[in-house]
């Protein structure tokens, strides 16, 4: 069993106000923690990985295929692989949560 202590992993500022922390990486899945500051946006992007997430604090507005969906604390979501999507924190508090990717998305190039 591998354990990745949160205190041992440095967050990366992928875009302004969007912090990502790579967690455990298995053979079939990986997990990352995110924190998105108020007013910040994850620009539209896509990747081949299916993405399943959980918001633990705050809320995000996802934009997928031109449709907006608000996801709040305790809500889970799934974004199919290769589906263009964006996320915006339109609230006054940080949005925090976890994303699980399959296949694993270990050490992605945040500039892509």
Structure description:
- This protein is 0% helix and 54% strand.
- The chain is an all-beta fold.
- The strands form two sheets. The protein has a six-stranded antiparallel sheet with strand order 1-2-3-10-5-8, with no helix packed on it.
- A hairpin with a 2-residue loop joins strand 1 (12-15) and strand 2 (18-25).
- The model has no long low-confidence stretch (mean pLDDT 93).
Number of helices: 0
Tally the beta strands.
10
**Cα-based radius of gyration, to the nearest Å:** 13 Å
Series of H and E elements: EEEEEEEEEE
- Biggest sheet, open or closed, and with what strands and sense? 6 strands, antiparallel
Q: Strand pairing plus helix content: what structural class? A: mainly beta
Task: Tell me the helix content.
Answer: under 10%
Terminal CA distance reads 31 Å
Question: Which features characterize this protein?
Answer:
single chain, mainly beta, four-stranded antiparallel β-sheet
């Amino acid at each position: 069993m591998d354990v990745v202590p949160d205190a041992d992993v440095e967050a990366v500022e992928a875009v302004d106000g969007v912090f990502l922390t790579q967690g455990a990486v298995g053979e079939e899945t990986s997990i990352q923690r995110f924190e998105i500051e108020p007013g910040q946006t994850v620009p539209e992007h896509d990747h081949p990985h299916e993405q399943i997430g959980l918001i633990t604090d705050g809320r995000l507005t996802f934009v997928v295929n031109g449709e907006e969906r608000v996801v709040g604390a305790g809500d889970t979501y799934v974004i199919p692989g290769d589906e263009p999507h964006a996320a915006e924190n339109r609230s006054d508090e940080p949005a925090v949560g976890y994303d699980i990717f399959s296949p694993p998305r270990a050490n992605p190039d945040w500039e892509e």
